[in-house]
Amino acid sequence: MAKNRTFTMIKPCAVKNGHIGAILAKINEAGFRIVAMRMTRLSKSQAEAFYGVHKERPFFNDLVGFMSSGPVVAAILEKENAVEDYRKLIGATNPENAEEGTIRKLYAESMQNNAVHGSDSDENAALEGRFFFPANECFSVEGKEELV
Ligand code: CMP
After folding, report:
1. pLDDT digits (tens), the chain, 148 positions
2. Euclidean distance between CA atoms 104 and 94, whole angstroms
3. Is ligand 1 within 6 A of the CB of residue 124?
4. pLDDT tens digit sequence for 5-48
5. Do the bridges between strand 72-80 and strand 116-118 make them parallel or antiparallel, or are there none, so unpaired?
6. Is 117 near ligand 1, meaning CB less than 6 Å away?
7. What phi-psi label fits residue 81: left (phi over 0), alpha (psi between -120 and 50 degrees) or beta?
8. CB 46 near ligand 1, within 6 Å
9. Domain residue ranges of the chain, discontinuous segments joined by +
């Protein structure tokens, strides 16, 4: 199977609760390589843009407030079958439905404060990755900068 990429954010709740290291360890143990990573804080308008697909949903304003409430860790991850395998590793959106051992089961507080984001398709992974990282901040497994 071809190597491909997904995008993740460790959300403000998990950063605040001190789970960055444990979540990154789970990511590494599951065989993902980190292509790009940065700790940053989204402005309200950046959070609105990132989650624009949900703007008609009743939870949109709360989600934007939450996602801009503190720092996040954004990262691009690489692995064979990255999108699907990462969604398995993080578990269901609602932590009550997440399988034992998944990142959300271990570290989520609620449906909204669900510890991590993971892209739902290869197309969205590319869009979301580009939202945070220019090509010269993405590094292949050999540590080489990406060519634009
Ligand atoms: P994420 O995978 O980042 O994608 C959209 C986010 O919206 C989701 O995780 C949750 O944080 C949030 N979300 C999705 N559904 C609901 C809901 N029903 N109520 C509150 N928040 C939600």
Report:
1. 568 999 999 999 999 999 999 999 999 999 999 999 999 999 999 999 999 999 999 999 999 999 999 999 999 999 999 999 999 999 999 999 999 999 999 999 999 999 999 999 999 999 999 999 999 999 987 666 775 4
2. 8
3. no
4. 999 999 999 999 999 999 999 999 999 999 999 999 999 999 99
5. unpaired
6. yes
7. left
8. no
9. 3-137
User: From atom 12 of ligand 1, which residue's Cα is the shortest distance away?
Assistant: 112
Tokens of residue 6, six digits: 């997904």
Burial 89-124 (b: 16+ CB within 10 A, else e): bbbbeebeebeeebbbbbbbeeebbbbbbbbeeeee
Tokens representing residue 147 in the block: 């060519």
Q: Quickly name the fold that domain 3-137 has.
A: Alpha-Beta Plaits (3.30.70)
Q: Which residues have a catalytic role annotated?
A: 117
The DSSP code sequence of 86-140 is HHHHH--SSGGGSPTTSHHHHH--SSSS-SEEE-SSHHHHHHHHHHH--GGG-B-
